Amino acid sequence: MRRVLVVGGPGTGKTTLARRLSATLDVPHHDLDRIAYEPTAPDAPFWQWTRVPAERRLVAAQILPATAGWVADGLYAGWTAPLRDAADTVVWLDLPAFVAVPRVLRRAAVHRLRGGDDWDLASIRRVARGARAYRTRPAATPADLAARDSANSTRTLALFLASSESRLIRCRSAADVRAVLSCSR
């Protein structure tokens, strides 16, 4: 396990798992949100960042696999195909909404209590709704994915990851995630 793509819906623990895997494997971690969005000002909170055009995202996704080892995480299908194809392991965090939604709310509350400004009330609502709807949205077309990130869904990921079956670990519970961490040691 040296090149790992971690995918899943909002609040499933993608970044937490990716950071732990990165530290365990001693490879760089790449948060795909930082490729998909860019700040509007040097200190702008994340909810004010703007969406990077699809072509620039794809270029970044083509450059990253050229490195010897990495862990990348995000909820994105479509433009992340080069990462999916280059990964020796793809971890899909497919946790239920009753786990994901409270995690989103807890993450936002803790961030705000610590003085952070990445979460305003509208973004908290949007991400919590997205975490719930992620499991019920229809499969997105490539045009849908290019137009809006909210088109990503469980059904979309299932189609996107079908070609990765032999390298895919699908985690549906916290126990499954712990098993991935123990295998990486």
TrEMBL record:
It comes from the Bacteria. InterPro entries: Cytidylate_Kinase-2 (IPR052922), P-loop_NTPase (IPR027417). Transmembrane segments: none annotated. This is Adenylate kinase. It comes from Paractinoplanes deccanensis.
